[in-house]
Specification:
- The structure is a homodimer of 405-residue chains.
- Chain A has 405 residues and is an alpha/beta fold.
- The first copy, chain A, folds into two domains: 240 residues, Alkaline Phosphatase, subunit A; 148 residues, no CATH class.
- The first copy, chain A, is built from 13 helices and 14 strands.
- Chain A has an eight-stranded mixed beta sheet with strand order 10-9-11-1-12-13-2-14, with helices on both faces. In chain A, strands 3, 4, 5, 6, 7 and 8 form a six-stranded antiparallel beta sheet that branches.
């Protein structure tokens, strides 16, 4: 419904995502946000609209894909991002409508009575260095199969992303292919099979690919096989600009978040360095060229996942020190939030609602003292679905016409 | 779901709509509601359930139509009220299921090589007085076309509402007719065309109507043509009484709100005068005859739209002084809210959640000190969709049976 109310104006909208920023009490009954000394954020919070968003649904812990789709204004239940696509994006591969992305695991197999049997599904978790060497070898040997180009990117340990690029866009459902990982040692790898005509065409290429891989890796001591799963296509998503009338860019360091932003058609800004300060300089450089800016800060999540609450607190404090530089840009609407919570005590993503701060001239404000979970609960935005956040940003930049007379 | 839980009892439910009552800080960091001296409202707020409603959806600014449908318990996205219908209601025309309502603009045209060309789409914004004279003249000349009765009502400047009343109810889609306004000067007016059989039948009448108008107005110096748009039918809406089991009436001064209430089948009460005091007297007069009372106070919105916060504050204070008279009626459930917010600083409707006060013997209370945006945020009702407000009123009057065993 919002689509037909979109109007344009020269306002600038900035969304800063502190990945996994939400937390739980971890020391002295305080969360990471509560432990952090944040004088600049505190001052801003006092004159902003505060609340919390529910990323996917009550009690649902989102991965990075659904977490970001939600705050980008897309229903994360309707648009699913396949495991292969996310793996490929995370390893820096660009994905197109012509592509099938696959998550691969290097494995150890042996021949028993002429049959291939899986001995170790992860090839003894080979070192990442060895993975790189093997993936390089495969890339050299297999560049194309029947006109389909093949791209590989090494991940950590035994993990690898594979991309098949067909000459033309593939119909929906071309990724309906059975995994080759038998999920248990001692069994034979499965043969990839398509569930319909177009996916069977992909499966034919995969069968050739598998036997070529087998040939290239036959003398490897450990990683002499490649198990395939998570076949997926780029989801059909209307671009952010088509949908919200906002020319958008992403200022992110990590490939997965750059990839997620590019999935919805945001431009990915290249810049020197990787610190928060470098990101703000990049923001400044392109400030005149876009309407919407997505800036992604990763380390809050990384430390949360490690259970290192002090590290997470430090990243929040570092951002706070740099906040005045962000405010100098005078965004018409500034949102600060996370894609999900990552409480240090859980060492992982969680389902908890995520603090949101929205600054604009058209807020009530004065409800809360700080940008923390508990202070956000007092705010004027309440607890709302993440996918509505963009509507609120559009409204506060006066980019939505009245609905009905 | 609520429909099958409806029970009846002799309780009285009163909804007072202070149009556009919600606001934003406008002076000393205070909103209009916060600036107003409201001792009676304050006392009531302390023992009421408070919260805020979201009229249509997060970030969506509603017109008066969707704003009222929501608080009347109807999904404002599902039921759309056409521009022609709203115009007709606003100018005091009654609309029926047999009717097509149209928004008309008087325009200036000239003949160029035998063709009619639009010179001014608004006839130089003729004075309202001239509009009245011309509309009167048209009404006299065109009373009926092929058994279809024609009604006209003059609006402000060049605006006019037209109603075609057919002998029998029209099927849905009979209003799918192309506008005649070419949207640009120098072009020919368009010919109204139906997109299906029943709308083409309406279009035939409209083509005759247009040429009759042309004939009647041919000697007018400015307004010698009438451009037509916003063709619409009365939406198919289950009546308030059928849906909620409440015999309902409306005490409203302005035609549009009387019209909106009549759309859902409320009885419109006629009364002397137009002040809030007059409305309360009218309420008293019919108190024994109905279950549900909708009382609409317009001026909060009018002053908000003018950016006159002091005016808005005064209307709130005026209502506060008269509140004891309302309470003397001893409603079992009293709700005070707005159909949307109209912050004086925005000089128009806005998307901000709207304060709600619900008084009944069955509330928690004690959460808040006043009926203001910020105090309502602390209330027991939270932030909820407008269309749920009637459910809450029914529940608090013990008119809803238990769901499930």
């Amino acid at each position: 419904m919002v689509e037909r109310l979109i109007t344009k104006n020269p306002t600038k909208l900035l969304m800063v995502v502190l990945d996994g920023v939400g937390g739980l009490p971890v020391k002295d009954g305080k969360t990471e946000l509560e432990l952090a000394r944040t004088p600049n954020l505190d001052a801003l919070a006092k004159r902003s609209a505060l609340g919390l968003h529910v990323p996917v649904d009550y009690g649902i812990t989102p991965g990075s894909g659904p977490g970001h789709l939600g705050i980008f204004g897309y229903d994360p239940v309707r648009y699913e991002i396949g495991r292969g696509i996310l793996e490929a994006l995370g390893l820096g591969l660009e994905v197109r409508e012509t592509d099938i992305a696959i998550r691969g695991n290097y494995a150890s197999v042996e021949r028993v009575n002429g049959k291939i049997v899986v001995k170790d599904r992860r090839a003894g978790r080979i070192p990442t260095e060895e993975n790189r060497r093997i993936t390089e070898k495969l890339s050299e040997a297999i560049k194309e199969i029947d006109g389909v180009r093949v791209f590989l990117a090494p991940g950590m340990e035994h993990r690898v992303a594979i991309l098949l690029r067909f000459p033309e866009p593939l119909p929906e459902g071309s990724d309906h292919i059975t995994d080759t990982d038998p999920q248990k040692e001692g069994l034979q790898p499965l043969i990839p099979t398509g569930k319909n005509e177009s996916s069977e065409r992909v499966a034919r290429v995969l069968r050739k690919f598998t036997s070529m891989v087998e040939d290239v890796l036959k003398d490897e001591p450990k990683a002499n096989y490649l198990l395939l799963r998570g076949f997926s296509q780029k989801p059909k998503i209307e671009s952010f600009e088509e949908r919200f009338g906002l020319k958008a860019c992403a200022i992110a360091v990590y490939p997965m978040y750059r990839g997620l932003a590019s999935l919805v058609g945001m431009n990915i800004i290249e810049f020197e360095g990787s610190s928060i300060g470098d990101q703000i300089l990049a923001l400044k450089d392109v400030w005149q060229e876009y309407d919407f800016f997505f800036m992604h800060v990763k380390k809050t999540d990384s430390y949360g996942e490690d259970g290192n609450y002090e590290g997470k607190v430090k990243v929040i404090e570092e951002f706070d020190r740099l906040l005045p530089k962000v405010l100098e840009l005078k965004p018409d609407v500034l949102v600060m939030t996370g894609d999900h919570s990552t409480p240090s005590i859980l060492k992982g993503h969680s389902w908890h609602p995520v603090p949101v701060l929205l600054y604009s001239p058209f807020v009530l404000g004065g409800t809360s003292e700080r940008f923390t979970e508990r202070e956000c609960l007092k705010g004027e935005l309440g607890i709302f679905p993440a996918k509505k956040l963009i509507n609120l940003m559009l409204a506060h930049s006066l980019r939505l016409a009245k609905y009905g007379a």
